[in-house]
Amino acid sequence: MQEFSLLFPKTWEEASGLLTQYSQESRVIAGGTDLLPKLRLKELPYRYLVSIGQIADGASIRNDDGGLSIAAGATLSAVETVCTPDCYNNLPKAGSNG
Asked: Number of helices and strands (H, E) in the chain?
């Protein structure tokens, strides 16, 4: 198995600092679902993995009159729980600039 360091920042600022510090040798992970196959095949090109799973608001989801806000660590099942039918209709707009 290849060696890597798994880092657990507590804030977005700390995560940003780690990614800046380790630059091309690092990657953000949330759940790590895609990590296991890469480890088995020894195809993980990163020495540092920065997990955002322990950041306090890292998995927050807000669906209110101001719109939909999904943090980077939110799971698909959490989005499904929070979203209403109107929310799903607005998802394509969320990824566009217009």
From this structure: 4, 5
Phi and psi at residue 43, to the nearest 5°: -115, 25
- For residue 50, list its beta bridge partners: 7, 28
Compute the C-alpha angle 36/37/40, nearest 5°: 85
Q: Are 58 and 14 in contact (CB under 8 A)?
A: no
Residue 62 near residue 69, CB atoms below 8 Å: yes
Query: Cα–Cα distance between 4 and 16 in angstroms, integer?
Result: 18
Q: What are the tens digits of pLDDT across the range 7-35?
A: 999 998 999 999 999 999 998 887 777 77
* Whether the model pTM is above 0.90: no
- Is pLDDT at 86 greater than 80 in this prediction? no
CA 43 to CA 74: how far, in whole Å? Answer: 26
Nearest to 14 by CA among 69, 64, 54: 54
